[in-house]
Amino acid sequence: MQRGTFGAGPRKEFAKTSRPGEFKLEPFTPQKSCSGFQCAVAEYNDYLVNDALRSMHDHIALTWLLTERSTGKIAAYMSLIMDAIKLSFTEKELHNLNYPFKTIPAMKIAKLAVDRSFSEKYKGIGTFMIDSAEHLAWACNTAYCAARFLTVDADIEHDEGVLAFYEKNGFILNSELFNKNRKTICMRKDLYC
Ligand SMILES: CC(C)(COP(=O)(O)OP(=O)(O)OC[C@H]1O[C@@H](n2cnc3c(N)ncnc32)[C@H](O)[C@@H]1OP(=O)(O)O)[C@@H](O)C(=O)NCCC(=O)NCCS
Q1: Quick check: CB of 3 below 6 Å from ligand 1?
Q2: How far is CA 62 from CA 35, 84, 136, 143, in A?
Q3: Class of residue 144 by CB neighbours under 10 A (exposed 0-12, middle 13-18, buried 19+)
Q4: Which domains does the chain have, with CATH numbers?
Q5: Would the pTM of this model clear 0.70, i.e. be above it?
Q6: Best substitution site from 112, 162, 185, 189 to test ligand 1's pocket, by max atoms within 8 Å of Cβ?
Q7: Could you report the per-residue pLDDT of 96-105, keeping only the tens digit for each?
């Protein structure tokens, strides 16, 4: 995907210029139509239309939609799942986690995508979605179940730039860098430092 090819003039900062109540973040439901959603990667559009609800029904992934209230259009979506990451001794030291366990609990952003028409208008929707995932993880930590990290498998197959996007949002590379297929890069963000 090409950055900087937006044609509609300077983009507005989503967090600063969207009015309170203009957008809502809510779990996906069967009543919600998502057929118009178009991000830069076809696979992510197909997932929302064909797999997201089934994955929710089977408790494989829970999808959240950012919807524009006035039009009902989906500006972005993310799918969240529970996770556990293996950290090396040095990585555990870095996060001050002096525990003998091999894995540390986490919440993973399994999918994240922003609709192109909203990307053309606003900068910062992806960042807003990550901030929202953090808030959900904190809420979960307080009330239900522990997760120390937010994790992501950055999809460099479709766009190498996503690494920079996640780094700008505070994610760092895991020492176990690649998944088996080497098409994604494993990253984490400490929710508490
Ligand atoms: C990747 C994606 C979610 C980013 O959303 P976004 O709303 O454009 O991101 P933001 O506006 O919050 O960007 C935050 C910062 O990251 C940078 N950034 C965002 N996407 C980038 C990319 N693809 N390449 C390089 N830098 C990127 C922005 O320029 C911005 O930097 P700045 O603060 O220095 O100006 C969106 O482009 C998308 O949906 N892509 C297609 C699906 C996809 O690849 N999802 C990720 C799968 S792991």
Answers
A1: yes
A2: 18, 17, 12, 18
A3: exposed
A4: 12-190 (3.40.630.30)
A5: yes
A6: 162
A7: 999 999 899 9
